[in-house]
Amino acid sequence: METAIRRRRFRQRIEVERDVLSIVNNSLHWGRPLMGITDAAVNQWRSDLDLTSTLAEEANAIARTVLEIARRLSLNADDSRDVFEEGQLLPSSSVGELRAHLETIINRVAFKQLL
Amino acid sequence: MIPVQTIEPPNQVLSLRLFGSEARCDSDLGSDLDILAVLDSPLTSDIAASVTASVEALFRRNASISWYSKERVVEMYKAGHLFAWHLHLESASLTPGCRYDILKILGNPAEYTCAEEDVNSLIDILHSVPSSLEKCPNNSCYEAGIIFVCLRNIALSASSLSANGLDFSRYSPYKIADTIGIPFPLNKEEYRSLIHCRLCSQRGLPYAGLKYREVISLYGKAWKWAQQIKLFVKEAKDGNSN
Which residue among A26, A36, A43 sits closest to B201, beta carbon to beta carbon? Predict the structure, then answer.
């Protein structure tokens, strides 16, 4: 039983990370893909971007939203023991509103880049 | 490296230990300073601040402290949890000789019996890499990191059935190769590139520009090896049960 729970948590973590990264990386082509959703990965991504002031504001909003999703699901820190750890994440539906917000920002950026 | 000086933590702390790569003496620039603190009461901000300050003063760097309740640690030992085995085999007390340490009292964890299930579960995750990459090729660095996690932990689980026993190191796929007779097909440079990708996605290391095709190529090698390990684990388990 414990093993099943542990596997579920690790799998679930990967699913959430893939989902968030795909929303960002499938739409934005800023030379630096977002590589993870931990505080460290998001902050590194944000500092690597070299953007105009308008897009920089949007990048900040994206970074803030991703960090909030990670924080709410307790995925904001590296946890190399996650493969072994018990318990489940909060359901990803608990961040549905934030995920929708992230998509809205991304769509807005895509539109601005078309102009 | 274990410092000579030790810590006198608050009484609620039943064990304070260094674990992970620092305790194993195979740390590098990407390694955290991993500390375990076992508590017999709920974590308070005072306890957290006191322990964190003591540990960081001792090691002169930031620490990643994992807070566990006494009950949870006892459960993990009874279940033969891999983390319990790691603590038992590789952790180092930061309070040696000067006080009660619950991990010493617990002794050996129960036998780890989930190798086959764990390997199969990790192989399932590994299997999901190509389709995920197909959906988002820009996630190549992230997916390369997932390949590393799967390979390392498949080797760790399989090592429980090898003559040398559990191997928690980052390079476990190489370490078990001779004992189980299954060579690891990635060269060290390729494997290190996967590790770097994992550190990018978790610890914010600078961008690793591993491309889609490179990741797929590494995946292909990893997949064949994982299938061999799966067979080894199944045969070893079947052999043990006969």
Answer: A36
Best CA proximity match to A63, nearest among A82, A78, A44, A81: A44
Chain B nearest C-alpha distance from A54 (Å): 23
Give the three-class secondary structure for A66: helix
User: pTM for this one?
Assistant: 0.90
Of residues B114, B109, B107, B180, the one with CA closest to residue B153:
B114
Residues of chain A found within 8 Å of residue B117, distances taken between Cβ atoms: 3, 7
Per-residue pLDDT of chain B (242 residues; tens, 9 = 90+): 555 567 888 888 999 999 988 888 877 766 788 999 999 988 899 999 999 999 999 999 888 898 999 999 999 999 999 999 999 999 999 987 666 789 989 999 999 998 999 999 999 999 999 999 999 999 999 999 999 999 999 999 999 999 999 999 999 999 999 999 999 999 999 999 999 999 999 989 988 788 999 999 999 999 999 999 999 999 998 887 66
Q: Burial level of B187, CB count in 10 A (0-12/13-18/19+)?
A: exposed
Name, in order, each residue with C-beta under 8 angstroms of B199's C-beta and a sequence gap of 6 or more.
Answer: B30, B145, B205
User: Taking CB atoms and an 8 Å limit, are A41 and B201 in contact across chains?
Assistant: yes
Contact B218, B147 (CB under 8 A): yes
Residues of A in contact with B158 (CB under 8 A): none
Task: Write out the residues of chain A at the interface with chain B, using a CB-CB cutoff of 8 A.
Answer: 2-3, 7, 10-11, 14, 17-18, 21-22, 25-26, 29, 32-33, 35-36, 38-44, 48, 77-78, 80-81, 83-86
Is residue B121 less than 8 Å (CB to CB) from chain A?
Answer: yes
| B142, B146, B153, B160, best to mutate vs chain A, most A CBs in 10 Å | B142
Helices (H) and strands (E) in chain B, counts: 12, 4
What's the CA angle centered on A49, arms A45 and A52, to 5 degrees? 145
**Closest residue by Cα to residue B151 from B114, B188, B112, B204:** B188
